[in-house]
Write a structure and sequence with these properties.
Elements: H1 6-11, E1 13-16, H2 22-32, E2 38-42, H3 43-49, H4 51-59, E3 64-70, H5 74-86, E4 91-95, H6 100-117, E5 123-127, H7 135-141, H8 147-160, E6 165-167, H9 173-180, E7 185-188, H10 208-214, E8 218-221, H11 223-226, H12 231-247
Parallel strand pairs: 1-2, 1-8, 2-3, 3-4, 4-5, 5-6, 6-7, 7-8
Helix pairs in contact: 5-6, 8-9, 10-12
């Protein structure tokens, strides 16, 4: 059994900042600062507001996970990785299905850029299989094997190419830990309340407690906090689940 402080548990909670405007986004940043460890800026918000939203969050002393899932030819993704480092993001991701060369060149570019700029190396993540996809979806696309098999194959590819970790469904954590060891970072979206059934496009979900107990290093939570009557109370509940999950390992 292992115990961590409340602050350390907070640091493992990433809030999905899926807001419709700059004002709404910054309202969430002001409310949740100190209650979550990082704010995830995804395609919706970044497309609407661009780098300014990252600069505004960083100006308030908060960490940023840039969730744009880069997937292109190696040179293009490597330059995008450098741009992300230049913005000062603490974590960002690419699609593992872009291949080992794309990942390796992007890792090298990002970490080299960080060194030149005197910045800490960001956490470099590879996305395995989206939590909105299940075995039937993969068959429709044309992938062979089930989600677990594909996740492990892509995660091993990413690890060998130098990635810090992966983004993966909570249902894949046990397989990943068994296959990749304890040091490879696992960031887990698809988190729902312990007694809540998913009613949206997330198909492979677990509670925060279950995900952390299985070995998740960070969990990403959006709608359960955003739609709550008391978002801070939900944050405190999730942080408590994180503490309990780590203690139960």
């Amino acid at each position: 059994m292992k115990n961590i402080s409340n602050r350390q548990a907070c640091d493992k909670l990433i809030f999905a900042l899926d807001a419709a405007s700059y004002e709404e986004a910054m309202k969430w940043v002001e409310l949740l600062s100190g209650h979550v460890g990082m704010f995830k800026v995804g395609k919706e918000l970044f497309t609407a507001l661009g780098p300014q939203i990252i600069k505004s969050i960083k100006a308030r002393g908060q960490k940023v996970f840039l969730d744009l899932k880069f997937h292109d030819i190696p040179n293009t993704v490597a330059r995008a990785a450098e741009a992300a480092v230049g913005l000062g993001v603490d974590m960002f991701n690419v699609h593992a299905s872009g291949g080992s060369r794309m990942i390796q060149e992007s890792v090298d570019a990002a970490f080299s850029c960080a060194g030149k700029l005197g910045k800490a190396k960001p956490v470099f993540l590879a996305v395995t299989v989206l939590t909105s996809l299940n075995d039937d979806d993969l068959a429709e696309i044309g992938f062979q094997g089930n989600t677990g098999e594909l996740v492990v194959r892509l995660a091993k590819l990413a690890q060998k190419a130098g990635a810090s970790g992966v983004v993966a469904s909570p249902l894949d954590i046990a397989l990943l830990r068994k296959s990749l060891g304890g040091d490879f970072i696992i960031v887990t979206p698809g988190i729902r309340g312990a007694d809540e059934k998913a009613k949206d496009d997330q198909k492979r979900t677990l509670s925060a407690y279950e995900a952390v107990k299985e070995g998740a290093d960070y969990i990403v939570v959006g709608r359960p906090i955003r739609k709550a009557e008391d978002p801070l109370a939900v944050c405190r509940q999730i942080v408590g689940e994180i503490e309990a999950g780590i203690a139960a390992r």
